[in-house]
Specification:
It contains eight helices and no strands. By secondary structure, it is mostly helical. Helix 2 packs across helix 4, helix 3 crosses helix 4 and helix 7 packs antiparallel against helix 8. The longest helix has 35 residues.
Length: 204
């Protein structure tokens, strides 16, 4: 069960933070100064609060104003809110560093508006930001360990429970470290495959 919880938390947080991060990045790049400036202030504020404090605020603070989540929902919400800000910064940086040549070439071939974004800009953004978002995925996996403080039964929580029950701290936490390492290696393999696809696309 703990493996399912950890996988759902990390995968769900990455998926939702990625979607929200792309939307927030678009607001940060808005030509309207009020929108872009306000969004950047919000993103900076989200990034300055440590994740552990964010999890505490969601789980213990929101009930004070009548908003109640279970431990699983609180953990997922804290992960999504926290990592949305980082994904937004990653996408914004990739967007600002896009080559203008392909965009101008796309316009010359008649692409405009949504078609220009979907066919020309989005693929470049994906390949440019995917490796860094992959690193962020590793950080999400590691941040799930903090959720033991709000009783989410993820990997570190289980290792701690095993240690408390059977008094085998070395074995339980070494096993947890190895499992985190395996997950990280899997994410890195996916990132390398995306980078290889990007290199093939540039060479084509």
């Amino acid at each position: 069960a703990w493996r399912v919880v950890a996988a759902w938390l990390a995968g769900g947080a990455l998926f939702l933070a990625s979607i929200r991060g792309w939307a927030v990045a678009a607001l940060m790049l808005s030509p309207q100064r009020g929108v872009s400036y306000g969004t950047r202030l919000l993103v900076d504020g989200m990034r300055t609060v440590p994740f552990l404090l964010r999890a505490y605020l969601v789980y213990y603070g929101l009930p004070l104003i009548g908003v109640r989540f279970g431990s699983w929902s609180s953990g997922l919400s804290a992960l999504v809110i926290y990592h949305t800000a980082y994904v937004a910064e990653i996408v914004r940086g990739a967007w600002l560093n896009l080559s203008r040549d392909q965009i101008e070439a796309g316009k010359a071939y008649g692409f405009a508006g949504f078609r220009l974004f979907w066919r020309i800009i989005l693929p470049q953004l994906f390949y440019a930001s995917a490796p860094v978002i992959g690193n962020q995925a590793v950080q999400i996996v590691k941040d799930t360990a903090f959720l033991m403080i709000i009783t989410v039964p993820e990997l570190t929580f289980v290792a701690s429970s095993v240690q408390a029950t059977y008094f085998v701290p070395f074995a339980s936490f070494i096993a947890a470290m190895l499992l985190y390492w395996v997950v990280t290696l899997a994410i890195e393999a996916i990132v390398r495959s995306v980078e290889a696809a990007a290199d093939m696309r540039r060479a084509a």
